[in-house]
Amino acid sequence: MKRIISIVMAAALIFCAALLPSCSQSKVSDDFKVGVIHIGDPGAGSGYSFAHDQGIVAMQKNLGLKDDQIIRKNNIADSDAAATKTAMEECIEAGCKIIFGTSWGYMETMAELAKEYPDVIFSHATGYMSNDTNFNNYFGRIYQARYLAGIAAGLKTKTNKIGYVAAMGIDNSEVTGGLNAFAKGIAAVNPDAKVYVKVTNTWFSVDLESQAAEALLDMGCDVIGQHCDTTAPQLAAEKRGVWGCGYNSDMTSEAPKAHLTAPIWDWGVYYTAAVKAASEGKWKEFGNYFGGLKENFVDISPLSANCADNTKEIIDQVKKLIVDGEFGVFDGKQVKIEGTKVSLIDEALKDNKGNEIVKAGGECLKDSDITGKINWYYANVIEG
Amino acid sequence: MNTIINFIFAAIKAGAPLLFGTTGEILTQKAGNLNLGVEGLMYMGAFMGFMTGFYTNSVTLALLAAFGAGAFGSLIYAFLTVTLKANQNVTGLTLTIFGTGFANFFGEMLIASTHGGAPKLSPDFSAKLSELIIPVLSDLPFVGRALFSHNLLVYLALVIAFICWFYLKHTRAGLNLRATGENPAAADASGLNVNRIKYINIMLGGGICGIGGAYISLINGNGVWNNGCINGQGWIAVALVIFASWSPAKAITGSLVFGAFTIFQVRAGEFAATFPPLAFLSSIPNAFYVMLPFLVTALVLIITSIRQKREGAQPASCGVNYYREER
Question: What is the pTM of this model?
């Protein structure tokens, strides 16, 4: 009897052991290590590196990685190629199979190392370089979220003047594309509104950003959008008793009386997908990543109570159009709104000099054009 | 007209923190010490002022803390350069790095310790530093808005600059200070305590720089703490000392000019739109306006060195440590 029981038990054990790999299919093996190169300090509690690191933490949770499977290199200046290289080589030595470089300036070092270490995957945020085997870039369609924020702004404005504090000028496609999407969203709900742009030429300056916002407020703008890193523009708007749309984080906590909604990122969506693909050996099919609303990679923060009536109804419908792929923002279509009824019409995409970028009903701009070649301002944008 | 009024208002507001930094640095240099740590001192003042305001809700305590932080930072500098005779340039640069790190390190902790990661001053505190409404004066046409409706700290900057001008020009202590900066050996021989004068004025100057930092964190940040908030303003203040040819009175106009250049970056387009003859302004790249203050400083340096006037020149012993034994 004993023998039979032990045989049964042993069989059960073997059966369980065989089941185990299939149970933990979404789990990454224990020796798969992930390297992350941060430009700043992820422990900051807010800001760029923090947002990326929250994504890494989410990935770790989703895939069940242990703490020692993630190797972070913090405060690596992206202008310092030698420091970047050292940090990445330390990751490789520690056994990292995939390395995320979160800042623009790491790009060339990563391209170089990708050749040197063909077994390691290099994944670079915000850049444009890649190869077909072990080096990709990842970024998001934040312009889709900006279009939605533009709707909230366009519905809110009373003076029909909306301000935008832009970190970089017209030649920066990321900033200009985002501004154009914001402006097109405004135009959809408020054809009379104009968007005034002030460029600070820096990603981070408390002084310049609040000075730019104040200049816009002096001009009569009553909603302030922004593509820059501090909360100063939103706080300046709050001080004047008007409204604004922040960026990167839900700035409602800083400017509760002014903030409408902010375009935000969820880097965890990408990090989870990328680490999963890499650990399962499916990297080859993964390629470059340019996720959007559909992938939940970008979104807008919850609409605050400051938003105009019906904002939520309208935005939810427009969001669905974008998620379903019916509307691509930079195409020959525009959202038309009657009451809370949302429909799509054909409309040429024109710049503010009257040039036609996409003809009415035309196809959406190619991804490479969106990331690199938007060097014009949308029809309702005024520089100055 | 409104364009001009708003422009002047914004220029004064942007110039005020520079005025603090410049006045402080003038006092320091008049004592014969070139302190390149203004940026660091402003950072320390910015953080200590903000944190004190955040926890105590008192403007007075916040300003005192900012002054104290600046004075403490410059005490380190004074000890190293006056007592230990360390190289002034190196010590100043180190102080900049130290102050920046100090503010960002503790700023990080402040951010992490607050709910939602956004340390924000209470509305009550911000109201005390909001733009003033002065009876009669604020209602005057044009100048009412441009000159007489600023926040309290703008007027504090002006008062401090005026007091420092008076102190340097019309008091015995100021004369002693200038003598020390020009020729410490002669001052020493005439019975002045050179080290004491240096210590006192370096610390006073540092404290004033600290208030300038608090101006940026309390006013320009609109009540929320930002790491990296000073962002090079301390260096502009150092350039402004040269522009103002070591006179607190000239520093007032100088800071206004520098403030105006800064504001031009974001308001040139408005001028172009309001005044058709100025339409060319909007076609000038922004970078040009960013460059202007430094270009003008370089010009001032060239002009003063050609004129070779003793008045308005850098104090003769500035940057050189005083060794009593080598007298």
Answer: 0.84
